[in-house]
Write a structure and sequence with these properties.
Elements lengths: L3 H14 L1 H26 L3 H34 L4 H45 L1 H18 L5 H8 L3 H11 L4 H29 L1 H32 L12
Length: 254
């Protein structure tokens, strides 16, 4: 039986073993995104239409940077399992998987849009009909729709480890998580609570330090970003190990 505790323990240990590599990658990409956002603000101040166009471009750019981050981190993990030098696995990961990962993220975003629209529509209808009780019902529906999207949590490692295309990775992730959704939800919930607790603690600390504390608070998401990617990697192997009889097992697997 899969254990959320064991998976998260493995995730944290793997993250700590690669802490500096992962953090440098995330901070570098974060600084690029920060610079792009500053440029976006300056362009948006010139004209409203320019601002709208740049905002749409920033969404695509954010997906691109997220894809590079996932490709670099998963490429490093894959390379180290195959005993490749770090720079080769890093370059190979970014070169071979960035565009597929970006396409997968774009497809997932497009899949989520109808759910988001449905959630807002139901929120308006239920709130108008039942008031506060309707709002609570809408929140429950929204959470349910979000949890359903967690069935795609294994798409990243499926692309890198099995060389699947974007749509095939989403389909296979849906199949692999069948019967393990609560396990996936548990992993996401605990890691989310951990990040929230750390962020809250640093927020309280930053109120005392002011300048340095503010910087530390802003860096927290970039330090945690690799943890989410590594958790997907660990969940993939734990589920595949459990369902060994259902899927072919290759050289990279337990």
């Amino acid at each position: 039986m899969l254990s959320v505790y064991s998976t998260l323990k493995e995730t944290v240990l793997l993250w700590l073993r690669n802490f500096w590599s992962f953090t440098v990658i995330s901070l570098f990409l974060g600084s690029v995104e920060f610079g792009a956002e500053r440029l976006q603000d300056e362009i948006a101040a010139l004209h409203t239409l320019l601002g709208i166009g740049v905002a749409i471009g920033m969404i695509a750019f954010h997906l691109f940077l997220s894809a590079i981050n996932a490709a670099a981190i998963l490429g490093l993990l894959k390379g180290r399992r195959m005993r490749e030098p770090g720079w080769i696995s890093l370059y190979g990961g970014v070169k071979n998987y960035t565009w597929t990962l970006m396409l997968m993220m774009l497809l997932l975003t497009l899949l989520a849009i109808p759910f988001v629209l449905l959630f807002f529509l139901l929120s308006l209808m239920l709130s108008a009909s039942f008031g506060m009780a309707g709002g609570r019902i809408a929140v429950v529906i929204g959470v349910t729709l979000y949890l359903a999207l967690l069935k795609y949590a294994l798409a990243d490692p499926l692309i890198v480890l099995e060389n699947r295309d974007a749509w095939d990775a989403l389909e296979q992730s849906w199949v692999m998580t069948r019967g393990f959704l609560w396990y996936v939800i548990g992993c996401y919930l605990v890691l989310g609570l951990l990040q929230f607790g750390v962020t809250l603690g640093i927020g309280s600390f930053s109120a005392t330090l002011k300048g340095p504390g503010t910087w530390l608070l802003e860096l927290t998401p970039y330090v945690f970003a690799p943890l989410w990617i590594v958790m997907g990697w660990c969940m993939y192997f734990d589920i595949r190990k459990t369902r060994r009889s259902d899927f072919p097992v290759g050289i990279l697997y337990y």
